[in-house]
């Protein structure tokens, strides 16, 4: 008599129940991948290769694998939460001193007191990637630079305007910003010096009589800074002509002369404009319709403090500053393996590489075969509770059936012993 088959069945069903129970327990664990038990039948080797009708000696657990299928993506309110949509794992290290790589799909990240991105649910593991300005190399723990963004002095003001060709030449000369009869139209822009001090730059447009062959229309451009007239450099007096705009008969801008603005004598104490400000009017027109300021931009900005983060699809960590500027602070990398099922679980929803998994392939999200990232979101567990409850019932029935097999074996053995 042999109890081996029934005993192995009990052990297999027990292991199956353990895996199902672990799946159910982690149904709410972010990034968890459900386990699956793989069984194999067992046979005893025959001596001298005799016999061709050996009876199996039961079952054995061949492997407990992870099902690395995509979990549902759920949105969150944490700006540093991130979900992987597609292939790949986050690369993490246990600490700054221990740089051995760990891998996982849980994207619930936070900033620690030193500015590093860590995952508290993964025992404080450090997220790795490329620091700001780097485009490759070995990934390092990502640290967010919370320093103030320095001021950027204005070096260029771009305007796209439409000047009304029906306007008459002003009757009052010379130009005076306080006299609206000395100019036709005006636009304004805020510019910044080297310390981030703002200035109100007003530009005025004065139509001049048609001239040239073929005839065209020229407009003179003057300006004020914080209400003060931008004057001609001594020994000249009066308003400084910043430049001229010339349009042909079809209203197309054909020439833009001058347009370089030196404000070094008008800045506030301790500041400067390192270079003259270039005024650009590319795309401007002159038509028989009302004056319009179609587009305007300038490249300066005051100092800014970091106010929020966002994570792009490509893993870019983008900081938004109080001065409306943005800056890339680093980039998250992903890692993939030829055989993810070969990864070795080490707890805290983390894995480590093994020979069976293959060499880790490091890359940026959305490149090659790597998935994309979704900020303010996490990947939920891929456990199907309905299927697991059914699996639990099946494992229970198998356990009961194997128990019955042992009971029958015991009854037969008892009957044999009772023979006289």
Report helical residue fraction: 10-25%
**How many strands, which pairing sense, and closed or not: the largest β-sheet?**
11 strands, antiparallel
Per CATH, the superfamily of the largest domain is Flagellar hook protein FlgE
Shape: rod-shaped
Find the count of extended strands (DSSP E, 2+ residues): 30
Radius of gyration: 37 Å
Straight-line distance between termini: 18 Å
> Any idea of the CATH topology of the largest domain?
Tick-borne Encephalitis virus Glycoprotein, domain 1
What percent of residues are in strands? 35-45%
Task: Give the mean pLDDT.
Answer: 92
CATH class of the largest domain: Mainly Beta
CATH architecture classification name of the largest domain: Sandwich
* Count of spatially separate domains: 3
The helix tally amounts to 2
| Secondary structure category | mainly beta
Query: Uncertain regions: pLDDT < 50 for 5+ in a row?
Result: none
What would your notes on this structure say?
The two termini are 18 Å apart. This protein folds into three domains: 4-69 and 383-417, no CATH class; 73-146 and 332-379, no CATH class; 156-298, Flagellar hook protein FlgE (Tick-borne Encephalitis virus Glycoprotein, domain 1, Sandwich). It is built from two helices and 30 strands. The chain has 420 residues and is mainly β. The protein is rod-shaped and about 140 Å long. The strands form seven sheets. Strands 5, 6, 7, 8, 9, 10, 22, 23, 24, 25 and 28 form an eleven-stranded antiparallel β-sheet that branches. Strands 12, 13, 14, 15, 16 and 17 form a six-stranded antiparallel β-sheet that branches. Strands 11, 18, 19, 20 and 21 form a five-stranded mixed β-sheet that branches.
